[in-house]
Amino acid sequence: MAASEKPHDDAREIQRLNILSGARSVFARKGWSATMADIAEAANVSQGLAYRYFPSKEAIYAELLDRASHLEAFENVRTMGGSAMDKLRYLINELLDINDTHIELFRLSVLTLHDDALPAALRAELEEQTEAFRSLLQSLIAEGQQTGVIAPGNPQQLLVALLAFLNGLCIMGIQGSENAKRHFPDADIVLRILQPPANS
Amino acid sequence: MAASEKPHDDAREIQRLNILSGARSVFARKGWSATMADIAEAANVSQGLAYRYFPSKEAIYAELLDRASHLEAFENVRTMGGSAMDKLRYLINELLDINDTHIELFRLSVLTLHDDALPAALRAELEEQTEAFRSLLQSLIAEGQQTGVIAPGNPQQLLVALLAFLNGLCIMGIQGSENAKRHFPDADIVLRILQPPANS
Questions:
Q1: C-alpha count within 13 angstroms, C-beta hemisphere, residue B197
Q2: Residues of B in contact with A185 (CB under 8 A)
Q3: Which of A90, B107, B113, B156 could form a disulfide with B28 if both were Cys (CB 3.0 to 4.6 A apart)?
Q4: Partners of residue B195 in chain A, C-beta under 8 Å
């Protein structure tokens, strides 16, 4: 083993994940203006220690983005069976689980996407991921309209409505009142906007 | 007329409204961090001129809040006839008109509500208005569930869903892409989340 390589170390890996988790939480709340001091505080470590794991907040953010692009849920939805509505239900339930981390990653993306201060390389990566997510939802809406499980009508309008709803729910799940979290809606309420009208 | 009173002057009133309008737009985009320089730029006047109309951004914000509390739409919805669903449709159509100012006032409220830097007196007024809006929606949901035009189920969950959806749409209407604005959803899509399930 070369001298520059560090031996694998469980405690080190756990601390690394702890700092990433703190960072995910503060980026999801403060956006790009979150500082290394905020991240260290959220991870309950000193700033000095945080810097021993990551050279900068840019490096932490880049790793969070990379992890977001490899989420199991995205892979699962591409390979699972079922109707377009089943796939959307699965995806939205994963995304809106307020005890899981997807909701923070989603909020982090939306919050930093329009911040001019975000470095260009990170923005390019974020835009690519945002576009992939949009395009996944778009193809599921198209598939669902074709098979009749999703309401007819302008698919772009349905997509904008769905994205807006998810965006608003992520904000509510992270920054909403305790009451909002206690009565947090599930995927079924979200999917009502896509349901075909009753034949009456 | 006392020397301290200014004679009524149409041009002066128009300039005043112009500055308020610029301020509404920048507060809706930047939140409380918007500065007098931003406001002056949005209103296309010099900072010096803006200060001759308003002593501070706090004064401008206070007047915007005051105007928001007297919106005709709120008065109309309290006096109009029709079902709870009709009233919600009217209210949401007013709110989501991306060519009107309500959407900016709504976004301004949501964006500044959780900013610790907002002065306490303004926060108290904002919280009162936010609570009045919540409580109006809540009473319409209760009325609609009682008369059967709104889906049964946890009314708090429907309220959280509706608020989240409106919040997400206001963001999209103000900061979304041109494509999102071109395909902006209307109140009917929003109200699908409240519709009773089809009897199938």
A1: 7
A2: 157-158, 160-161, 164
A3: B107
A4: 192
Residue A183 has which token pair?
């009565």
Instruction: State the helix-helix crossing angle for B120-147 and B57-69, rounded to 10 degrees.
Output: 20
ipTM for the predicted complex: 0.88
CB atoms within 10 A of CB B177: 11
The residues of chain A that CATH labels 1.10.10.60 are 9-63
Is the pLDDT at A31 greater than 50? The verdict is yes
Query: Residue A152 carries which DSSP code?
Result: -
Which of A137, A149, A177, A192 would best serve as a mutation to test chain B binding (most B beta carbons within 10 A)? A192
Q: How far apart are CA A12 and CA A24, in angstroms?
A: 18
- pLDDT for B200: 42
pLDDT of residue A196: 86
Comparing CB atoms, the residue among B166, B171, B193 nearest residue A189 is B193
Are A179 and B158 an interchain contact pair (Cβ–Cβ within 8 Å)? no
The count of CB pairs under 8 A between chains A and B is 103
Best of B127, B137, B191, B192 to substitute, by most chain A Cβ atoms within 10 angstroms, is: B192
CB B167 within 8 A of CB B110: yes
Q: CA end-to-end span of chain A, whole Å?
A: 73
**CATH number belonging to the domain at B10-63, selected among 1.10.4160.10, 1.20.272.10, 1.10.10.60, 3.30.470.20:** 1.10.10.60
Which of A189, A190, A199, A200 would best serve as a mutation to test chain B binding (most B beta carbons within 10 A)? A189
pLDDT given for residue A60 in this prediction: 97
Stated as kind and residue range, the H or E segment containing B186 is none
The fold adopted by the segment(s) A9-63 is: Arc Repressor Mutant, subunit A (1.10.10)
Residue A10 is predicted with a pLDDT of: 87
Mean pLDDT is highest, among A3-7, A11-15, A72-76, B34-38, for B34-38
* Residue B8's pLDDT band (cuts 50, 70, 90): low
- Residues carrying CATH 1.10.357.10, chain B: 71-200
Fold classified for B71-200: Tetracycline Repressor; domain 2 (1.10.357)
CA A157 from chain centre, in angstroms, equals: 22
Q: Is the pLDDT of residue B72 over 50?
A: yes
Mean pLDDT of chain A: 91
> By the CB < 8 Å criterion, does B141 face chain A?
no
Q: Quick one: pLDDT at residue B100?
A: 81
